[in-house]
């Protein structure tokens, strides 16, 4: 697929790539992830002020740029190239669309403008192991099983003196230790009439305890939440459909981000094999190396086409994400192998991309389940079953 980008879209890409080349090199990434917030607040403010990055997909009526998920995906392709550690994914892809879909007008006007300006960050407080199911990427999220069950499962909410109080725990939550706003799914109605609803919780609310996890991919901050009678604002409405819609656009955003990472690490590897000599010649001149890199190039380009198509049709987001994660994993593995000894060291950047590939598949996959869900939604399993039954009848 060869999309025809608008001049504005080209400008978003060019400006973002130029800025990140100056402010987000490998050493900058390693320094930022080891700070208390886990990212560079100064760079985040600059991205918000100059590009409106967190508000790209937020309507102008609520202080955003008024673009769409396609522009956000295009921006994330560039942040993926640099492995930018930031609250962008959790804030702009997960939290803001849910607040837009389920919030009241006062809530939207109160919280969306500061989110769009980068003054506040937010996240969806769903534990990592069930996040792809909650988003409808690996199964049907309608029954709310991903939110825990029973009297002590997940987070519980009850009304006390007219206010909602939340009690429970959630682990492996993206940006849990630093987000200013938390969108928390919780069970209401007691054990017999349990219903999962979404609540807005301030990051500084009394009774909220947050702990940062040590993670495989330091550029994807995760943490644990403990809520002890924490006050929350109800975001009323049926939750599973908005969650599934957010899942499709998030998958598109992640696919574009993974494509950016894969393309960059492949470019660095190609540049390296042109310079590294063995037996008196550049290793990139060996046919076996050429074939390996050519295969990775085709894989990355196919994943890019799938990601761009998903930006136009979000229903293809899950399949695009599966293809992009596979491309990133393969490109990062080749980078480590073809860089030789230096590629296996912590000093080199190759391991950062490999960790991103592994971490994203753990958080939003695995690839096999993403593909299974895409096939199920396309009706391929039903067609196969009908064909098998017909064949059995003939036999």
Automatic annotation (TrEMBL):
InterPro entries associated with the record: Acyl-CoA_Oxase/DH_mid-dom_sf, AcylCo_DH-like_C, AcylCo_DH/oxidase_C, AcylCoA_DH/ox_N, AcylCoA_DH/ox_N_sf, AcylCoA_DH/oxidase_NM_dom_sf
Residue ranges of every copy of the Acyl-CoA dehydrogenase/oxidase C-terminal domain listed in the record: 252-377
Domain of life from the UniProt record: Bacteria
Protein known as: Acyl-CoA/acyl-ACP dehydrogenase
Signal sequence region: none
Pfam families, per database record: Acyl-CoA_dh_1, Acyl-CoA_dh_N
SUPFAM superfamilies registered for this protein in UniProt: Acyl-CoA dehydrogenase C-terminal domain-like, Acyl-CoA dehydrogenase NM domain-like
Similarity annotation: Belongs to the acyl-CoA dehydrogenase family.
TM region positions: none
Required co-factors: FAD
UniProt keywords, alphabetically: FAD, Flavoprotein, Oxidoreductase
Chain ranges of the Acyl-CoA dehydrogenase/oxidase N-terminal domain: 6-119
Classification via Gene3D superfamilies: Acyl-CoA dehydrogenase/oxidase, N-terminal domain, Butyryl-CoA Dehydrogenase, subunit A, domain 2, Butyryl-CoA Dehydrogenase, subunit A, domain 3
């Amino acid at each position: 697929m060869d999309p025809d980008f608008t001049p504005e879209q080209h400008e978003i890409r060019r400006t973002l790539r130029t800025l990140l080349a100056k402010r987000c090199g490998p050493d900058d990434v390693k320094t930022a992830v080891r700070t208390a917030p886990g990212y560079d607040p100064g760079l985040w403010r600059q991205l918000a002020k100059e590009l409106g990055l967190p508000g790209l997909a937020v309507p102008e009526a609520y202080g955003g740029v008024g673009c769409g998920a396609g522009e956000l995906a295009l921006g994330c392709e560039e942040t993926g190239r640099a492995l930018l550690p930031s609250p962008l994914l959790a804030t702009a892809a997960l939290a803001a669309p849910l607040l837009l879909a389920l919030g009241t007008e006062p809530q939207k006007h109160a919280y969306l403008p500061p989110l769009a300006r980068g003054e506040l960050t937010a996240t969806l407080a769903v534990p990592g192991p069930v996040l792809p199911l909650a988003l409808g990427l690996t199964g049907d999220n309608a029954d709310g099983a991903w939110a825990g069950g029973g009297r002590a499962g997940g987070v519980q909410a009850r009304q006390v003196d007219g206010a909602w109080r939340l009690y429970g725990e959630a682990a492996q939550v993206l940006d849990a230790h630093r987000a200013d706003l938390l969108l928390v799914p919780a069970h209401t109605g007691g054990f017999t009439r349990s219903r999962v609803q979404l609540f807005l919780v301030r990051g500084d609310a009394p009774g909220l305890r947050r702990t940062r996890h040590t993670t495989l991919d330091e550029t994807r901050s995760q943490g644990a939440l403990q809520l002890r009678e924490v006050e929350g604002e109800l975001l009323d409405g049926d939750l599973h459909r908005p969650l599934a819609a957010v899942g499709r656009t998030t998958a598109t955003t992640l696919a574009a981000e993974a494509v950016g990472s894969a393309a960059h690490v492949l470019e660095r590897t190609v540049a390296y094999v042109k310079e590294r000599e063995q037996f008196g010649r550049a290793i990139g001149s060996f046919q076996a190396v050429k074939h390996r890199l050519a295969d990775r190039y085709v894989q990355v380009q196919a994943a890019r086409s799938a990601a761009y198509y998903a930006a136009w049709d979000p229903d293809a987001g899950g399949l695009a994400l599966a293809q992009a994660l596979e491309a990133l994993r393969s490109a990062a593995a080749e980078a480590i192998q073809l860089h030789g000894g230096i590629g296996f060291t912590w000093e080199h950047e190759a391991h950062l991309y490999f960790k991103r590939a592994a971490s994203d598949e753990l958080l939003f996959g695995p690839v096999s389940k993403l593909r299974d869900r895409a096939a199920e939604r396309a009706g391929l399993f039903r067609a196969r079953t009908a064909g098998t039954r017909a064949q059995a009848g003939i036999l």
